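From the methods appendix. Each design record in this collection lists the tokenized structure first, followed by the designed amino acid sequence. Records were kept in a plain field format so they could be parsed without special tools. The example shown here is representative of the layout used throughout.

RECORD:
FOLD TOKENS (451 positions):
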């Protein structure tokens, strides 16, 4: 199969014949920053610009002004399209630094997918049609689908949304874009799910499970891929009891989304974890010394995959020969299924013990009355860091500190239990369901200092 941008554009246009016009400066080698909220226009513009030989970076329309300025400084685009502003063409008087930045974008036809932002470091993973289609092919093969029809409810500037388009192109299928909030409001009744695939983040899955009327509709999907954050065991068990075709998976922007996947059949049969490595990938676990960890023992997750990006912008190329050492901890069970424990860089060092926030969050989500929870580490003179839980209650009366701590005693070791629990009215998360832990920790510190 021809995976060139021109071929992908032709496949997209056969399914979506509406013409797309691009400004004259979009040509071979030009750096295009694409900031577009509408998924149809974003897809069409991406394929048209990449087929013309442009190098394309995707932007998040919801970035703050500061994030947007940092992103512009990082990639130095020639042309900005979409909601980011009107077409802006840089002059030919580029500095040496700007020329170096242009080279970092890679070959014509490279696509930069953002990772980070919302107050943190923004950088872009540099992909090609070959890496994106390798990932799409692997998911279709594991699910054993000849036609991949997608119902996409995730934004396309995130890899979890974008890859649904590429899977549909590989699987000769279709993509329907819809707003998840409309589905929760009853819009699912007007949207056929039979035989389709979709991707959700754990927060979306939890909210869908809370509406029993949605369950028959969800049951008709071929597969519901779920990734992007910690899931409580109770959520997984509720989905299994409802006979939902979940496909828990693990991946990241650097790997063009999923590199492991548990099939719906295996999930419904009682399988656990995020599944075995997909056909294009290999997944291992290494200990602190870099040696392979034994089965069931935790360590850093290491990837090898045909879908790994070539490097970062700004940043250096990735060296894949020894595998890509991720920032995630996990373990492999006796069946080769990956179990993800949490981010290494989110670990809280409290009294010399490491606590992974995701472990505490999963325990909190199992308790009655807890709708959502985020755990952060904040500086502490005695402990170095103390574990703080921010809890969004379903029922404030059941979310008293003593009651929550009583429920956590049988679920967590003493050093993992929060030293402080704060009840909040909202827990901001991004479109992929991930909390901005740094911002929440700062907000908590400001809240304490104002009392």
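DESIGN:
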């Amino acid at each position: 199969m021809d995976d060139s941008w021109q071929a992908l554009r032709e496949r997209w246009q056969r399914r979506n014949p509406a013409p797309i016009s691009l400004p004259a400066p979009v040509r071979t080698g030009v750096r295009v920053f694409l900031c577009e909220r509408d998924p149809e226009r974003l897809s069409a513009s991406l394929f048209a610009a990449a087929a013309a030989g442009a190098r394309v970076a995707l932007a998040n329309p919801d970035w703050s002004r500061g994030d947007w300025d940092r992103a512009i400084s990082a990639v130095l685009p020639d042309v900005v399209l979409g909601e980011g502003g009107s077409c802006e063409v840089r002059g030919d008087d580029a500095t040496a630094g700007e020329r170096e930045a242009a080279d970092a974008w890679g070959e014509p036809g490279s696509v930069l997918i953002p990772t980070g932002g919302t107050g943190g470091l923004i950088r872009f993973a540099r992909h090609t049609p070959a890496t994106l289609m390798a990932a799409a092919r692997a998911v279709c093969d594991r699910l054993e689908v000849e036609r991949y029809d997608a119902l996409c409810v995730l934004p396309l500037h995130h890899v979890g949304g974008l890859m649904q388009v590429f899977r549909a192109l590989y699987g000769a299928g279709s993509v329907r874009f819809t707003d998840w909030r409309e589905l929760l409001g009853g819009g699912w009744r007007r949207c056929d799910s039979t035989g389709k695939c979709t991707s959700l983040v754990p927060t979306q899955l939890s909210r869908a499970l809370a509406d029993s009327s949605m369950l028959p509709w969800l049951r008709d999907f071929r597969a519901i891929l779920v990734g992007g954050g910690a899931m409580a065991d109770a959520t997984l068990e509720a989905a299994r009891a409802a006979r939902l075709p979940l496909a828990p998976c693990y991946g990241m922007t650097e790997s063009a989304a999923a590199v492991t996947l548990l099939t719906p059949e295996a999930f419904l049969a009682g399988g656990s974890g995020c599944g075995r490595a997909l056909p294009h990938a290999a997944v291992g676990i290494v200990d602190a010394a870099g040696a392979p960890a034994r089965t069931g023992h935790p360590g850093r997750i290491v990837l090898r995959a045909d879908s790994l990006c070539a490097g970062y912008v700004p940043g250096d190329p990735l060296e894949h020969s020894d595998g890509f050492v991720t920032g995630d901890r996990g373990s492999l069970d006796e069946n080769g299924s990956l179990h993800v424990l949490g981010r290494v860089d989110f670990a809280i060092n409290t009294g010399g013990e490491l606590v992974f926030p995701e472990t505490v969050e999963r325990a909190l989500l199992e308790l009655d009355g807890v709708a959502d929870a985020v755990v952060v580490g904040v500086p502490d003179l005695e402990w170095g860091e103390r574990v703080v839980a921010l809890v969004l209650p379903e029922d404030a009366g059941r979310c008293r500190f003593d009651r929550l701590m009583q429920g956590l005693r049988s679920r967590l070791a003493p050093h993992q239990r929060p030293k402080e629990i704060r009840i909040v009215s909202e827990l901001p998360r991004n479109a992929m369901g991930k909390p901005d832990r740094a911002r929440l920790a700062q907000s908590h510190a400001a809240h304490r200092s104002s009392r």
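APPENDIX NOTE: Residues 347-449 form a domain with the GMP Synthetase; Chain A, domain 3 fold (CATH 3.30.300.30).
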